[in-house]
Write a structure and sequence with these properties.
single chain, alpha/beta, 9-stranded mixed β-sheet, 6-stranded mixed β-sheet, 40% helix, 24% strand, globular, binds 4-hydroxy-3-methoxybenzoate
Length: 389
Amino acid sequence: MQKRHLLNLITGAALAVCGLAHAQDNAFKIALILPMTGPFASTGKQIEAAAKLYMAQNGDTVAGKKVQLIVKDDAGTPDTTKRLAQEMVVNDKVNVLAGFGLTPLALATAPIATQSKTPLVVMAAATSSITQASPFIVRTSFTLPQAAVGIADWAPNNGIKKVVSLVSDYGPGIDAEKYFKDRFTFNGGQVVETLRVPLRNPDFAPFLQKVRDAKPDAIFTFVPSGAGAALMKQFAERGLDKAGIKLIGTGDVTDDDILNGMGDVALGVVTSHHYSASHKSAVNQKFVEAFQKANNNLRPNFMAVGGYDGMRVIYEALKATKGAGGGEALLAAMKGQIFESPRGPMFIDAQTRDVVHNIYIRKVEKVNGQLYNQEFDTIKDVKDPGKSK
Ligand code: VNL
């Protein structure tokens, strides 16, 4: 009896261990590392909400695996992003790294993806060179060269010949400045001054004063998601609009997350970007409605769409590899995916692992009492111009 009892115990314990191992085998873990606090918390909030919406709509069992989303806050600090990624790769054995709210956060973590052969899905950061930092990086956000070239083509045909550019002084800003200037100049325009403002705690006032003094037709700007409201406010306070200076830029400045709170100063602002919450398609309408319903009426912005599409790319790779794929197989299954996103048609270029999508020219207008970026022109299937050189 004694012996048998012991045997039972041992068998039970072994099974429990097996069960545990099985439970682990059966889990598919996605590390979602985002700035959930600090000045870029809106990006984290938007992406987390979108990832959760995608899972709610598509279930958490995929190819026999139980998908687990592990959300971590890096507060927008690169060292923290990297440390969290390392911990989750080593301790939690995550299958995919995802999120990356800003360029420095993605660049800091790229070596972890390479060393551990873990696919890293960039859902927000948008400096062109990011995908070159690791062969395991796939991007579902956008690139600044993609966005900047559209407005550089539109402006000179619409009375804007002389521009001062004003960008955040880091990767995406420098991309925006360069690709806008090259194209605008090629189109016969003139960039008379290039100004760069610090990424952290920017005070736009002295820069806007310089713009006023230079008397350009327009200011071209890139500021990261969340910073547009402060720029717009100071633009109005300094009387630049009254002085007849227009504001153009990539769509980050009229971000859907904050656009409605900007007031009438934003009316008429023309930008180029890959996503507007008012994009006219059945897929987008469904997305916006579901997102708002699940998030207290919060309007999804381009960050949310990067997160939503990133989850789709991960889910489809898991399906294609029938739940049996390691990092390399998953990565291979992410490359070349093509589908209809809320932004419009989109695909992941297998060569560059970067996103190819339409860029829309949009103007801020009031629709049913709310401000929206209303798309009025489309440049189809834009590849990252940063990669063609
Ligand atoms: C970046 C690019 C960040 C565009 C943004 O918002 C943005 C980046 C936080 O690559 O850091 O709108």
